[in-house]
Amino acid sequence: MSFLKNSLGISHEIVEKIVKEGDIVVDATAGNGHDTLFLAKLVGDSGHVYSFDIQDAALEATYSRLCAHNLQHRVTLIKDGHQEMDKYVPRGVKAVMFNLGYLPGGDHSICTKPDTTIEAIKKSLELLITNGIVMIVIYYGGDSGFEEKDAVMSFLKNLDYKKYSVLMHDFINQINCPPIAVCIEKLR
Amino acid sequence: MSFLKNSLGISHEIVEKIVKEGDIVVDATAGNGHDTLFLAKLVGDSGHVYSFDIQDAALEATYSRLCAHNLQHRVTLIKDGHQEMDKYVPRGVKAVMFNLGYLPGGDHSICTKPDTTIEAIKKSLELLITNGIVMIVIYYGGDSGFEEKDAVMSFLKNLDYKKYSVLMHDFINQINCPPIAVCIEKLR
After folding, report:
1. End-to-end alpha-carbon separation of chain A, Å?
2. Under CATH, which number does the domain A7-186 receive?
3. Chain-chain contact of A157 with B173 (C-beta, under 8 angstroms)
C-alpha cells in the first residue's frame, strides 16, 4: 500500500477537508455516480448536491447508487450540460467536482468537450463562495482527451492570480498519462 | 485565511502524515533550522534527526532553535555537504526534507547547486525504507535558482516509475515563481 494517493484519491482527500454538513455542492460530471455519493455523504441531511450528466445511463446509475445508500433525497439529478449549471444551482456553493473524460465503461465518443467544459468551470467559479473550490480530475491518454486537457490547462494557467489560486498535482515520472488533479480556490 | 496551503505548508502536511515517533529522518538543508525543529518534534525521544548544512551560521541558528525547545538531544547537526549524507546516516530513513535555494536572509552566492543537490537526492533515495519519502521544496526566481530547478526537475522526471512515485505540486497561475513542492515515494 503506497503512501501517495492517486489523482482521484487526492481529489477526495481535498474535498473531504473542505466540505462540511449543510454545504451546497455540485458534481458536474455524475458518470457512474461515485463522486455524487461521496458528496451526498459529506453534506448530510442539511446540505445538498446538484449532479449533472447528459446521459440517461449515467443518471440512472447514479440514482441506483444513491438509493442503495438511501441518500437520494440529498441529491438533485439534472439531465443537462454542466455548462448550464447556473440555471439550476443557487450561488453559495462550497465545492464543485469534475471528472473530465468519458463515462468509464461507456461510449468514448460521448465525452466532455473543451468548450463546454471551460464554460462549466467559469460558471462554477461564479457560483462558489469565497474560499470555495473547484476540484478537477483530468483523464487523458489512449484515444482521447489530449485536446481537452491542453485547453483546460491553458485556461487554468491564465486565471487571475489575485482572484484564484490554482494548484496542480502531477505525477511527473509516469509513462502512461496518469490523470492530473487540479484544485482551484476562489480567493475573493 | 485561504484553504490551500503554500508549498512549505504542503510539504509540512505531507511529512506530518508519514513521520511517526521513533523514525529516523534527515533535514538535508538545515538553513535557519525550522524544518529540523519541525522534524525533531515529530520523531519524539525514540527517533532521531540528522541535519546538514555547510554554513556555521545555519548550524548555530538551528542549534539555538532546538535548545529553545529543549530538543537538541534528538538531533545530530553535521557540518558537511548533504551529498555526503551516506557517511553519517544509517539506512532505514523514513523521510528526507530539502529546501533548495539559498539561506533566507543569507548570502545568495552560497546556495544549493544542481550537481551536489542531485547527488544528495540520489543518496537520500538509497537510505529510504520502502514507502519512505523525499520531500523537496524548490525556491527559485529573482537572481537565482532557475538552473537548479531545471536540473532537479529533469532528474525527477526520469526516475524509474517502477521504483518511485514522483508527485509535483505546482501553483500554475501565479506570476512570481512560487516555490514548487515535490514528493518522491520509494515504492520498493
Report:
1. 39
2. 3.40.50.150
3. yes
pTM, rounded to two decimals:
0.94
Q: Each residue of A111-155: pLDDT tens digit?
A: 778 899 999 999 999 999 999 999 999 988 777 788 889 999 999
Q: Which of A110-114, A168-172, B80-84, B133-137 has the lowest mean pLDDT?
A: A110-114
ipTM of the complex in this document: 0.92
Quote the Cα angle for B128-B131-B136, to 5°. Answer: 65
Condensed to tens digits (0 to 9), the pLDDT of residues A4-59 reads 999 999 999 999 999 999 999 999 999 999 999 999 999 999 999 999 999 999 99
Q: Is the Cα torsion angle A86, A87, A89, A91 positive or negative in sign?
A: positive
Q: Min CA distance, B28 vs chain A (Å)? A: 21
Q: Do residues B126 and B91 lie in contact, with contact meaning Cβ atoms separated by under 8 Å?
A: yes
Q: Which residue of A has its CA nearest to B181?
A: A169
In chain B, where are the structural domains located? 7-186
DSSP letters along B88-113, please?
TS-S-EEEEEEEESB-TTS-TTSB--
Query: Which site among A1, A4, A128 would you substitute to test the B interface, given the most B Cβ atoms closer than 10 Å to its Cβ?
Result: A4
| CB of B47 closer than 8 Å to CB of B93 | no
Q: Residue holding cell 546556495?
A: B111
List CB contacts (< 8 A) between B13 and chain A.
Answer: none
Phi-psi region of B141 (alpha: psi -120 to 50; beta: other; left: phi over 0): left
